[in-house]
Amino acid sequence: xxxxxxxxxxxxxxxxxxxxxxxxxxxxxxxxxxxxxxxxxxxxxxxxxxxxxxxxxxxxxxxxxxxxxxxxxxxxxxxxxxxxxxxxxxxxxxxxxxxxxxxxxxxxxxxxxxxxxxxxxxxxxxxxxxxxxxxxxxxxxxxxxxxxxxxxxxxxxxxxxxxxxxxxxxxxxxxxxxxxxxxxxxxxxxxxxxxxxxxxxxxxxxxxxxxxxxxxxxxxxxxxxxxxxxxxxxxxxxxxxxxxxxxxxxxxxxxxxxxxxxxxxxxxxxxxxxxxxxxxxxxxxxxxxxxxxxxxxxxxxxxxxxxxxxxxxxxxxxxxxxxxxxxx
Length: 328
Fold this sequence. Notes:
Elements: E1 2-6, H1 11-23, E2 28-33, H2 36-46, E3 53-57, E4 70-73, H3 83-100, E5 106-110, H4 137-152, E6 157-160, E7 163-165, H5 173-179, E8 183-187, E9 193-198, H6 199-210, E10 222-224, E11 230-232, H7 233-244, E12 249-253, H8 255-267, H9 269-274, H10 283-287, E13 290-291, H11 296-301, H12 310-323
Helix pairs in contact: 1-6, 3-4, 5-7, 7-12
């Protein structure tokens, strides 16, 4: 059996590739990436046998001769400076991949909680029955992607994960560095609450779902995926600080201040390069105080596996940063 993974050099894709190879159920794993050299370096650092991975440059045809049985699409752009960049990669490029796959290929698309938007006012969680209300161009691109996928491949499965944490995530590195300081900036005055999932749990669930014997029996083809517990922005920083043995103070930043900072970063090329995650578009998601979703349907389909607690997930993440020399 052959599995195709797109975005194998990214956070989720890289973890998915490692877990798929460790499982031993695949004859080969095909990695479709923009930067084959980067992937080779990552494989070398992980001690993975190159012979087990077939590398295909992004944009190359995925013809029927590859005989791809399963495909999990993880590629996409998370942070961009204009709307067209999100739609070009997250929608147009994805559809080119889908259209080149055999119609018999089982296909999972990794979307995002951003497609739905924050938890509606007055509710404890957002479910798939709630109307989508994305706050950003990124979220809008994910909604457009989902609709295009369903028009082309109604048999596909679309997963909307929330915040993803775990080893090999570069986005959490600034959090640990901030937690090590005396003053720890926090967006907004109110405590913010989030759904989340450990990357190991997410990729385990993806592989279990795509190999399920009752693949086509699921009436809902789009669902949220999250651990059963929630986290707060304050709790997340405190968890990182505790692991580092750091003692500091939270410094709440009013939303207008954060919005102004994002505008300054967008306006200065040197700052844009240094802080790629802080954009006027994505900062809108920080203003919402609740991003909690109902992921019970996903957990039921994935088999009711236990989910890694936050403390253990953060400890594994820190251990990886230390093993790679990014944190001492």
